[in-house]
Design goal:
14 strands, Aspartate Aminotransferase, domain 2, alpha/beta, 8-stranded mixed beta sheet, globular
């Protein structure tokens, strides 16, 4: 009776079962996985945000598939403030980056076609692809004192049914940015094999240090058909506002054909609400203070983590360049699952195992750098003590 696209075997894993039991019992949980900025103790300019949503223009229904002109100009201004010129006509609004991926998979792939995605990375790709009847093939990110994209392995993963390559910059959870020399080779591969390049840049505003080799953004990159994704969820700490966007780049003919087809897809759904579109200029402005608080938290938590690790050489913080997460290599005295269950059951500390993000080996634990400082410090102290 139901579509095979939804035939997922999703039983609760042991960690989620243990977490639910601990919550039912009312026991202490030091959550080092918090990724929701609205629950991480930041000060939101509530009056400014609420006032932005009271625009009377939102009472008028204006079905604009790519998004209202005022909102697309606000996105263009966001890029201009970062030294990048983006024509508003290249911008298409969506309700989320998940919806942006759904639009792009519809645009680029027929059922059974393939999209290349990085490993390790965020597990949501599996579900998004399955809902569009698209197959995923992975290419590795390799770690050798820092993360790098394995171009040779990526090239070897291309088949006759490959339609696009996804890069996440900075990646979740590795915190690694795409580099200029990697982009040159990646663009060449995409051009030679008629592949689109999808650049997920939702964490791009959270670089931890400057790097001239870093690709800041692929917005309006024209060497290959390119789609850059971003939105309010991360850059302004406003996931509840449900507004993201796609910036289309590439050779003019391909770009125009892509925009025409995306416009048709978006016109079918018309999912982005008028209030948030009219509010976007003011939300981006209000979001600057939230972004600054998040950036300060990331650096503070990273400093705390680095300082606590000094006396624990058995634990290694993997190099990260940006984003909201940190990865610890921990002693292989236990499996990742055993590490996580032990920390939760005996120390009240919640962390994520590397296998949640498809790390190819063990043992790694992933922590959120959004965690309130006091919680992070106590949780890490218990975590490091548990390794003795």
């Amino acid at each position: 009776m139901f579509s095979a696209r939804l035939a997922w075997d999703t039983p609760a894993n042991r960690l989620s079962q243990a977490l639910a039991a601990r919550r039912r019992a009312g026991l202490e949980i030091l959550d080092l996985t918090e990724s929701n900025p609205t629950r991480a103790g930041f000060s939101y300019p509530a009056e400014e945000i609420l006032a932005a949503l009271a625009d009377r223009r939102a009472l008028l229904y204006e079905p604009a598939p790519a998004g209202l002109d005022c909102a697309r100009r606000a996105v263009a201004a966001y890029y201009a403030a970062r030294g990048r010129t983006v024509d508003p006509t290249r911008i298409l609004l969506t309700a989320s980056t998940s919806e942006a991926y759904a639009y792009l998979f519809k645009l680029l792939a027929d059922p059974g076609d393939e999209v290349l995605v990085p490993r390790p990375s965020y597990p949501l790709f599996d579900y998004l692809a399955a809902l569009e009847s698209v197959r995923l093939r992975q290419y590795p990110l390799c770690y050798e004192e820092a993360w790098r994209l394995d171009i040779e392995a990526l090239a070897a993963a291309i088949t006759g049914r490959t339609r696009a390559v996804v890069v996440v910059s900075p990646n979740n959870p590795t915190g690694s940015f795409l580099k200029q020399h990697e982009l040159v080779r990646l663009a060449d591969l995409c051009t030679r094999h008629d592949l689109a390049l999808i650049a997920d840049e939702v964490f791009a505003d959270y670089a931890l240090a400057p790097d001239p080799e870093r690709v800041a953004s692929l917005a309006a990159f024209d060497e290959a058909l390119t789609f850059s994704l971003n939105g309010l969820s991360k850059i302004a700490g406003l996931p509840q506002m449900k507004l993201s966007w796609i910036v289309v780049g590439g050779p003019q003919e391909l770009r125009c054909r892509a925009l025409e087809r995306l416009d048709l897809i978006a016109d079918t759904f018309l999912s982005v609400a008028a209030p948030v579109q009219h509010a976007l200029p003011r939300l981006l402005e209000a979001g600057l203070s939230i972004q600054q608080q998040i950036a300060a938290r990331l650096r503070s938590d990273l400093d705390t983590l680095t300082a606590l690790l000094v006396d624990h050489p058995a634990f290694e913080l993997l190099h990260l360049e940006g984003g909201w997460y940190a990865t610890l290599r921990v002693p292989r005295t236990r499996t990742e699952e055993e590490w996580c269950l032990n920390l939760l059951d005996h120390h009240g500390v919640l962390v994520q195992p590397g296998f949640f993000f498809d790390f190819p080996s063990e043992a790694f634990l992933v922590l959120s750098l959004l965690t309130p400082p006091a919680v992070l410090c106590e949780g890490l102290t218990r975590l490091l003590g548990a390794g003795l």
